[in-house]
Design goal:
The protein is α/β, with parallel strands linked by helices. It has ten helices and ten strands. The strands form three sheets. A five-stranded parallel sheet has the order 5-4-3-10-9. The protein has a three-stranded parallel sheet with strand order 6-7-8. β6, α5 and β7 form a beta-alpha-beta unit. It binds 1-deoxy-D-xylulose-5-phosphate. The site of 1-deoxy-D-xylulose-5-phosphate has 16 residues, from β10 and α9.
Amino acid sequence: MDQHTTAHTARDADLKIADKTFTSRLILGTGGAANHAQLAEAITASGTELVTVALRRVDPGASGSILDVIERCGVELLPNTAGCFTAEQAVRTAKLAREAFGTNWIKLEVIGDEDTLLPDPVELLDAAETLVRDGFTVLPYTSDDPVLARRLEDAGCAAVMPLAAPIGTGLGVRNPHNMALICENANVPVICDAGIGTASDAALAMELGCSAVLLATAVTRAADPALMAAAMRDAVSAGRAARLAGRIPKRHLANASSSFDGMADL
Ligand SMILES: CC(=O)[C@@H](O)[C@H](O)COP(=O)(O)O
């Protein structure tokens, strides 16, 4: 296979996390959606196959809940432990989610404080180790720290999910260098999670080597959520293609794109 064919095949390759494969590399969070109809439109437009929901925001038994939207859209549910501040709370929430939704997949969030909503690295690692031991497929939301990402992978997490920027800020990838380092060193999928503001942020995350992007606010609070969801779908796809295509090295000085050789002396 030549290089061209290899890059094309890689672009079309599915995203594999633990024992599941996904065609889409965009994961959608549901927080902030104005109503269920808008959320359904955004999910469909995004092309996502995986949607996260906070256990504390759902009553699994109630009809007309967000779960109905997810079912109608034909996408998979990834419960998360949003709102947990300690490993103990997160482990308890994950176990409740496993019972309620019949899945051992969990997006692990253990938050350090209410102002920054940044992950608490000590509690996060503790919770991840406990949940992996208990048979969960753990996808931890983490800071953009390459050492912590490695420790989470070593603990047996199925993916690592470093933040682009704090949740809901829309600031985009704040530390591209760290994000690239995490991607270079990881042997599990790296999913850029939180802080994406617009399509170019999602494209950059993929260009840096991420396997997928998870975002919520940029879509749910956009003026036109479905249109932004479609833009994110295209951005993730374009960013991945650009990564695989191999970007040109950046140069300090100009470099003529057409050669000066053979030009007539005027
Ligand atoms: C960790 C967390 O809560 C994020 O996954 C959030 O759901 C998405 O963050 P944004 O709303 O910034 O995209």
